[in-house]
Every structure is written in structure tokens, then in C-alpha cells.
User: Which sequence fits this backbone?
């Protein structure tokens, strides 16, 4: 039970014999536990009965029986409990892979007894409203993975540890957590004078800007500045040059997880989108670069300056 399940899966893929048998046993942990406890209790009770019988034949007195009980308790505690279980914790693969060769055939032999015992145990638990989960074996959920990544004793560089934790957080975090708020969005208002628009395009540190009329809720598209900079010097440049080069706006529902949004950007082959509420009002702006920065840290300046 203390095996590293990920390493076990890795060894199973490599067709390691002991790992294959251990993996087969762990598919039904209640059965293997039932077998182990059945054998453990049988041996302990048998040892107790034999020790008492021997003590009676040797001396027959209460003191002899008590001394034999104490001696048996010490022997069982050291050789059957503390030592093997400590060894199992320190060397789980060694013991698990070796013992699986014994447990697997024993489980097939004593399966009827184990089945009856587990069934009775399950019925008793149901009386108290406790049921077994449908999925018999759960390895590690997201919280467990985060705990492993955060508290690993292996020499993992902090930057890699942070990236791994950020990846695991993508599903729980939403686009609102990292978006540029609507009040901070820099865009082009087509109602502004042409001279002001040209100046804003020339001085922008971003390569993509939303284009709207009067306010950001009336956005009509995104402008890639590289497609328009060459045209700025032309004498007949006007606002039609801007509207003719717009990219269709992409809207992202509020509450979308970062993981889902990364997939959406990939499917739509886009790098930028506007986060909107249920009424269609713009809440903010998010880019693929924002998502990447959330994983690997600050790579570039600005929130929507990617090429």
C-alpha cells in the first residue's frame, strides 16, 4: 500500500513481472487486505494456542502461562509487526514484488473465504451508512499531486516546482483571475480623430489592439499592428484601412477555466480574446501569453504584446 503508484505504472508498462502481479493485486485492495488479515489473524491465534498448550505441558501454572504470553507478545511485536512493517515502508517494491508471487496464488485458493468475510464486512458497514466507492482503486487526485510537488524531498529546482504547481492550478483557476481588466485595456476607438489613432498605433507596445466604437462593449475586432504600420505612411490612409484589416473578435464566457481556455485558443488558432459576462458586457481581455506566463512565469512585458 506504500508503493509509489506512478513508478508501479511505469514498471507495468515495461512488463516487470513483479510489478504486473502487484498491479493485479492492487486492482482489488479489499481482497488482498482480506487475505493478509485472514492469514495474519490465523497465524497469531494459532501461535497463541500453541504457546499456551506448550506452557501448560511445561509447567502448567499461571506464572508459566503468563510468561509465555508475554514472550509471545514480544516475539510477535518485533518479528511480525514492527520489523516487517518498517521494512515494508522503507523497501516497498522489494517486499511487494516478492510477496505478490505468494499472495496471488493464495488469493485464488482462499478466494471463497475472503469473499465471504469481505461481504459480511461490507454489510456491517452499510448498516452505518458507509459504502465502498465504485472505483476500487484511485491513485492520486489533483490535491495529492499538488502535495507531492510542493513537499517533495527530491532536489527539484524551485522554478520547475512552481511550473508544475501552476499547471495543476489551471483547472481550478478561471480567466477572470489573470485577465486584463476592462479599465486597463488599451484599444482603438474609431470615434477618435484619425491623428490620435495613428499616434496610438505608432506608440503602442502591443502588437494586437481591440478596435471599438465609443466603448469596449462595442468592439468590432482586433487589429494586428504589423498589418497596418506599413499603410500609415500612405497619403490616402484613413479609418477604412483599419476596419478592412480587422480580425474577428473572440469572446470568452466568464468562469472559463484556464485549462479550457488554453484548449480553445489552440482549437481556434487564436492568441487573444475578450472575457464577457452573461449579458455580453466585456469584463476584460486575456491572451495566450497570459496563460503561458501563468505557467512558466514572466517571459515578456505586457499582457497582450505577443506577435
Assistant:
Amino acid at each position: 500500500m506504500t508503493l509509489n503508484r506512478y513508478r508501479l505504472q511505469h514498471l507495468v508498462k515495461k512488463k516487470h513481472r513483479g510489478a504486473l502481479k502487484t498491479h493485479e493485486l492492487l486492482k482489488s485492495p479489499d481482497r488482498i487486505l482480506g487475505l493478509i488479515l485472514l492469514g495474519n489473524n490465523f497465524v497469531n491465534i494459532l501461535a497463541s494456542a500453541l504457546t499456551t498448550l506448550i506452557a501448560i505441558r511445561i509447567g502448567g501454572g499461571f506464572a508459566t502461562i503468563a510468561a509465555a504470553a508475554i514472550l509471545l507478545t514480544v516475539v510477535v511485536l518485533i518479528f511480525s509487526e514492527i520489523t516487517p512493517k518498517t521494512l515494508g515502508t522503507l523497501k516497498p517494491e522489494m517486499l511487494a514484488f516478492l510477496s505478490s508471487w505468494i499472495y496471488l496464488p493464495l488469493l485464488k485458493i482462499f478466494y471463497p473465504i475472503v469473499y465471504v468475510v469481505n461481504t459480511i464486512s461490507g454489510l456491517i458497514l452499510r448498516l452505518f451508512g458507509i459504502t465502498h466507492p465504485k472505483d476500487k482503486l484511485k491513485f492520486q487526485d489533483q490535491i495529492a499531486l499538488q502535495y507531492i510537488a510542493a513537499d517533495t524531498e527530491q532536489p527539484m529546482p524551485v522554478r520547475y516546482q512552481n511550473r508544475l504547481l501552476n499547471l495543476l492550478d489551471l483547472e481550478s483557476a478561471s480567466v477572470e483571475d489573470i485577465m486584463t481588466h476592462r479599465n486597463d485595456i488599451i484599444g482603438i476607438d474609431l470615434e477618435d480623430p484619425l491623428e490620435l489613432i495613428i499616434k496610438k498605433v505608432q506608440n503602442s507596445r502591443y502588437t494586437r489592439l481591440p478596435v471599438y466604437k465609443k466603448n469596449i462593449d462595442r468592439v468590432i475586432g482586433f487589429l494586428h499592428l504589423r498589418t497596418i504600420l506599413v499603410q500609415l505612411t500612405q497619403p490616402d490612409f484613413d479609418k477604412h484601412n483599419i476596419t478592412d484589416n480587422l480580425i474577428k473578435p473572440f469572446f470568452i464566457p466568464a468562469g472559463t477555466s484556464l485549462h479550457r481556455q488554453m484548449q480553445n485558443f489552440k482549437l481556434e488558432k487564436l492568441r487573444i480574446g475578450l472575457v464577457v459576462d452573461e449579458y455580453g458586457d466585456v469584463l476584460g481581455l486575456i491572451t495566450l501569453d497570459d496563460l503561458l506566463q501563468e505557467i512558466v512565469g514572466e517571459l515578456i512585458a505586457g499582457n497582450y504584446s505577443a506577435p
About this structure: Confidence is low (pLDDT under 50) at residues 135-140, 298-303.
